[in-house]
Amino acid sequence: MSVNWIKVEKKNYMFTVRRQPIVIARGDGTRVWDVDDKEYLDFTAGWAVNNLGHCHPAITEEITNQAKTLVQTSNQFYTLPQLRLAEILVESSVLDKVFFGNSGAEALEGVCKLAKKYGKINRDGAYEIITAFNSFHGRTQAMVAATGQPLYQESFKPLIPGFVHVPYNDVDAIIDATSDKTAAVLLEPVQGEGGVNVPHGTYLSRVKEWCEKQGILFILDEVQTGMGRLGELFGYQIFDVEPDAIALGKALGGGAPIGAFMSKDECMVLEPGDHGSTFGGNALSCAAAFGSTRYIIDNNIPARAKEMGAILMEGLNNLRSKFNFISDIRGMGLLIAVEFDNEISADILSKSNKEGLLLNAVKPNAIRIMPPLTISSLEINQGLECLESVFKTV
Ligand code: PLP
Hints:
Elements: H1 5-12, E1 24-28, E2 31-34, E3 39-42, H2 45-48, H3 57-67, H4 80-91, E4 97-101, H5 104-122, E5 128-132, H6 141-146, E6 163-166, H7 171-177, E7 182-187, H8 203-214, E8 217-221, H9 235-238, E9 245-248, E10 259-263, H10 283-298, H11 301-322, E11 326-332, E12 335-340, H12 345-355, E13 357-358, E14 360-363, E15 366-369, H13 377-392
Parallel strand pairs: 3-13, 5-6, 5-7, 7-8, 8-9
Antiparallel strand pairs: 1-2, 2-3, 4-10, 9-10, 11-12, 12-15, 14-15
Helix pairs in contact: 3-10, 4-10, 11-13, 12-13
This protein binds pyridoxal-5'-phosphate.
């Protein structure tokens, strides 16, 4: 008799996330298989993590070789994977220095510490960071405070002070919220978890201009948008702005847990003793991240995201013309949301699971589509056919 793994989870695991009733056993490219060997097309990619799909050899070979060589030492010493990864990230971005941690939230913790110290030194003790409503920056205590969604904050008050929230895509709101206490502005190039909200083309460049004028840092959270998802390696390239600092995570490790923050030399105010991490920059995750990043760059995977994103968007717009309960389709590259005029995401997910298509419910009335960037047009069409047959039953 096979083990009832969902029962095992219920008995032993803290219930903090509503999972789909699927136990995934293995993956390959855009597909995963559950413990009963049912096949699924994966349009979630580990929450925008598996940009090269599941078990891509560029990543698994690095992990395998590194696992046989050196898994972890501490930052008391240098290691090759960490330095190779630092070099490729600095060479392919507008930032000058990097620090590695273990997750997106941890990367943002680091970049916020950098901003606070920058304010202390350069703006007479300024410490506030302006972030946007509907943003998502992670689940640590400071990042719950940074995230502009009251839903995630209510149970954890009093919140860590120092974060000011303004409407997204509104430059004047940032101008009005800036005071002599402001050290930085922190924004996502496209809001992911907040519902895939794409700003106006000039929003980020106007915010950057304001920050420069005020002498405050312009920081981008590229945890979800970085590593090619929007159609360029980094989201800031699409909006033609140069951030002072960025946070990375998710797809950076191609599935291995790693986060990073990067900054320009001019604002790298951290000194020995200010920040650190036992596992941050460990050899195994850095090798995976190096393999993934090298492949993404060498094979122009961001351009593929743009091309496949256009095909997916066209197919979704076709569906919109057939199903009038679809109220909006928005996104960029392969980060797309389909919004409905009703709270039907849960129903859509459970029906699409049965059809063999994995989706993410980003809101009760919106699904998020974020497949591997290596997806083929054939797989996109298969996914669209599944979606169409699900929509017919709604
Ligand atoms: N920032 C953004 C934009 C994210 O989308 C997320 C996760 O969804 C995070 C930060 C937090 O990353 P992690 O879950 O790795 O801590």
